[in-house]
Recover the amino acids of this structure.
């Protein structure tokens, strides 16, 4: 009887979480712990209170790429080389940097979630080590095809009933789903339209262990065939088969903005009316 009640409680907890989860949050559900320092490009972003809130990618010695909606968290510090969060202050591999400047994509729209990109310039260059490596972007990134298996990683929540970030860096595999499919009523991810500047990815088979990037993984990279193709952006609920995660796609326009901003720290673009 006790086991039955426990199972019922877990089920109710999952349902309530899925119904109440807000958009603009992302976490690793159903993933596995990453081997120490095997993803040396991962960055962990801390707010003004000293709490980890988002992920990111170290593109060069002074630049980190993340998601524009993370700006709401007032990011002040970036930590590189983190294996476990609790040990990050004393771990000799970790390098801490304050944020000198921040550049939100000029066309980011919080209402539609398009162009969810954010660049952070660090106050001091990061030194490459065995635990910290840069991950420069390719000049052009092919649109990932339906069925492509990709990886998402971060320190976000690992349990829908425990709203705490993971102490360990976690990763999970997700499958790319066609935008047309994600925009169908069955798969509709909240009120947002999945555009050509987004990638939709989640679970497509009958495996009951649904893996998902669903609060804490926002801004982290979506890696396909070893190449970063996107940034964890938004979703509804967690590990919900009919609500796949959505990622900002690193289109040519986005890559041009990133390169120009890092080079000249300025970028002019006429944004479409939303």
């Amino acid at each position: 009887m006790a086991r039955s009640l426990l199972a019922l409680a877990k089920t109710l907890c999952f349902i309530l979480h899925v119904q109440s989860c807000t958009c603009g949050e992302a976490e690793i559900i159903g993933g596995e712990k990453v081997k120490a320092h095997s993803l040396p490009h991962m960055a962990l972003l801390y707010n003004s209170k000293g709490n980890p809130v988002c992920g990111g990618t170290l593109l060069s010695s002074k630049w980190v790429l993340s998601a524009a909606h993370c700006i709401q968290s007032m990011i002040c510090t970036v930590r590189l080389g983190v294996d476990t969060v609790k040990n990050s202050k004393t771990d000799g591999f970790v390098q801490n940097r304050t944020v000198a400047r921040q550049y939100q994509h000029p066309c980011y729209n919080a209402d539609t979630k398009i162009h969810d990109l954010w660049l952070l310039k660090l106050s001091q260059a990061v030194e490459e080590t065995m635990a910290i490596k840069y991950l420069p972007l390719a000049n052009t990134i092919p649109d990932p095809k339906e069925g492509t298996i990709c990886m998402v990683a971060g320190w976000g929540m690992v349990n829908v009933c425990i709203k705490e970030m993971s102490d360990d860096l976690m990763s999970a595999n997700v499958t790319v789903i066609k935008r047309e499919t994600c925009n169908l009523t069955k798969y509709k991810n909240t009120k947002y339209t999945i555009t050509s500047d987004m990638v939709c990815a989640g679970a497509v088979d009958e495996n009951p262990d649904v893996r998902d990037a669903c609060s804490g993984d926002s801004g982290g990279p979506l890696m396909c065939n070893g190449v970063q193709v996107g940034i964890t952006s938004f979703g509804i609920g967690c590990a919900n088969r009919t609500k796949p995660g959505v990622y900002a796609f690193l289109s040519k326009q986005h890559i041009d903005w990133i390169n120009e901003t890092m080079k000249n720290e300025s970028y002019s673009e006429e944004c479409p009316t939303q």
